[in-house]
């Protein structure tokens, strides 16, 4: 499952991913990211991103490769902060590999802590 939503009041792109994806689901997620990123790109200031991966599972190599396309789309945005919520060290490692060094990332185990970090200057 994947959801993406841009909140123009907060200037925040919220992403929620869970489960183990098929290639088709990964392609659908990339299309969803493209749509939400298009909306975020119209925002006048740098945005924040919150990725809730608490329900996510380690993905196959092919799905991880497809997910890198989503990360490339996000890399085109002006991002002030990017918070990732997960308690899994393996998910963190996979996410870091997919993201590369293009993002101002921080990892959290608690959603409230991540949200609080996003609103700090």
From TrEMBL:
Pfam families according to UniProt: SpoIIAA-like
Residues spanning the membrane: none
Database matches in Gene3D superfamilies: SpoIIaa-like domains
SUPFAM superfamilies with a match to the protein in the record: SpoIIaa-like
Coiled-coil residue windows: none
Domain of life: Bacteria
Record InterPro entries: SpoIIAA-like, SpoIIAA-like_sf, STAS_dom_sf
Identification of the protein by name: STAS/SEC14 domain-containing protein
Source organism of the structure: Rhizorhabdus dicambivorans
């Amino acid at each position: 499952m994947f959801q993406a939503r841009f909140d123009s009041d907060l200037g925040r792109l919220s992403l929620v991913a869970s489960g183990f994806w098929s290639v088709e689901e990964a392609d659908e997620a990339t299309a969803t990211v493209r749509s939400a990123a298009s909306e975020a790109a119209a925002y006048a200031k740098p945005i924040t991103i919150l990725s809730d991966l608490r329900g996510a599972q380690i993905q196959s190599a092919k799905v991880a490769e497809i997910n890198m396309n989503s990360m490339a789309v996000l890399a085109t945005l002006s991002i002030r902060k990017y918070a990732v919520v997960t308690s899994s060290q393996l998910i963190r490692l996979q996410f870091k590999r997919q993201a590369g060094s293009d993002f101002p990332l921080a990892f959290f185990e608690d959603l409230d802590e991540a949200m609080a970090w996003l609103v700090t200057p």
